[in-house]
Amino acid sequence: xxxxxxxxxxxxxxxxxxxxxxxxxxxxxxxxxxxxxxxxxxxxxxxxxxxxxxxxxxxxxxxxxxxxxxxxxxxxxxxxxxxxxxxxxxxxxxxxxxxxxxxxxxxxxxxxxxxxxxxxxxxxxxxxxxxxxxxxxxxxxxxxxxxxxxxxxxxxxxxxxxxxxxxxxxxxxxxxxxxxxxxxxxxxxxxxxxxxxxxxxxxxxxxxxxxxxxxxxxxxxxxxxxxxxxxxxxxxxxxxxxxxxxxxxxxxxxxxxxxxxxxxxxx
Length: 267
Fold this sequence. Notes:
Elements: H1 3-20, E1 22-30, E2 36-39, E3 51-56, E4 59-60, E5 69-72, E6 84-92, E7 99-100, E8 113-119, E9 124-130, E10 137-144, E11 147-155, E12 163-169, E13 175-184, E14 190-192, E15 196-200, E16 211-212, E17 215-228, E18 233-243, E19 250-256, E20 259-265
Parallel strand pairs: 16-20
Antiparallel strand pairs: 1-6, 2-5, 2-7, 3-4, 3-6, 8-9, 9-12, 10-11, 10-13, 13-14, 13-15, 17-18, 17-19, 19-20
């Protein structure tokens, strides 16, 4: 083997070793005005520490990571609340991987403030918000059958404008209607908007009877839910008719329009 080939093999082996001996921890999220704290470890050789570089949005930070614990100072960067962030912590693989002590610091947080919310007679729910610091989904809920039920979702825009406006087509029932939206962030705690209310002039749906054989027919299309005596939902949908042929004989509870009744499946 010639000296030139030996030198080339040495370079290739060294380069391969440097790739194998390095790892990345990647955190993505939104700037929430908080810094990140990292627990570091000694390198496998006992000289120096595991982390050897930290970048934020592609730029190397000036943080002092050559210690057993350090802070990634995001406050000194030109960031606004809600800005997208990608943090890469580069570390050696011959030592315990560093641990980010507060990774939730980059998670989107529900901070919106409702400026207006209303619903038209045609069922168009509209709301506007300010102070969104992260992209989170708005869940639309309707109050019917003495409970709030899920009816749909709208993606939040986040910090794209001073005021964000949203719309969602809902399905009103007869009589008094109530709607609201909510967001749930990493804390798991929902944040609700005020309630939008209006009285529908649509005629009440009729047709349900206390005894059922093969089907239930309504005077108009309606949202419905059928529960068994144990509280398990067995049918749900939006129609002017419910096929009951596959229901076993017994007592059931039916929610439809803005009414609740119980019925007996005869056979």
